[in-house]
Amino acid sequence: MAGGPNWTGVNRSVYEMEGIFNYRDALQSTQGMYRKYIETEPNFSKFRALLEKADMTRMLDETGLLYTVFIPVDEAFESSGYPQAYLDGLTKSEAIKLVNFHIVRDSRVFSDGVVETVHTLSGLRLRMSGRWDTFRIYTVRDRMIRVIDEKSNMQASNGVLHATDKVLDDR
Q1: Residues 154-167: what's their mean pLDDT?
Q2: Collapsing DSSP states into helix, strand and coil, what is residue 76?
Q3: From CA 130, how far away is CA 134, in angstroms rounded?
Q4: CA-CA distance, 110 to 90, in Å (whole number)?
Q5: 34 CB-near residues (< 8 Å, 6+ apart)
């Protein structure tokens, strides 16, 4: 295997070598996704505040379980009908409910050409299809959510994270 990969994904978590697509070994990292990405990414501040209100930050740093987390970027909350005043007024149980729409347990979903249906912790059914920059999530009533390519397939020791352009919910 001379040289490096022939192709590397935008966020460097996926690469191609000798005709085979590979994922970076997330287990090389001992950091869970909260400390590795959510805590430090400025555009995740609203979701981070929801996790803190829901008292769920520790869950996303623990090892032993795998999660796929779809995190709406900050501007996605307003465009999805969740203004800051609404988020500030949520109770802990309401925050838990909203966060649970975004977490899939025991699963590592990548945007590499998957056609799959999964259920979030809230029971919301998500249908996914497409690959890379055409990867989309469809919720109730075929509402389409776009995964932001440069912030997708972000791996940690306990799963994978994707930034989205909308909030996931059952509306």
Answers
A1: 92
A2: helix
A3: 5
A4: 31
A5: 51, 57, 58, 60, 61
Exposure b/e, 50-74, CB count within 10 A at least 16 = b = bbebbebeebbbeeeebbbbbbbbb
Token digits of residue 152? 């997708």
Alpha helices by DSSP H, listed for 4-142, are 33, 45-54, 74-79, 84-88, 92-100
pTM of the model: 0.81
Q: Is 35 helix (H, G, I), strand (E, B) or coil?
A: helix
- The DSSP 8-state label assigned to residue 89 in this structure reads T
Beta-ladder partners of 155: 160
> pLDDT, tens digit, for every residue of 125-159?
999 988 877 889 999 778 899 998 888 888 888 88
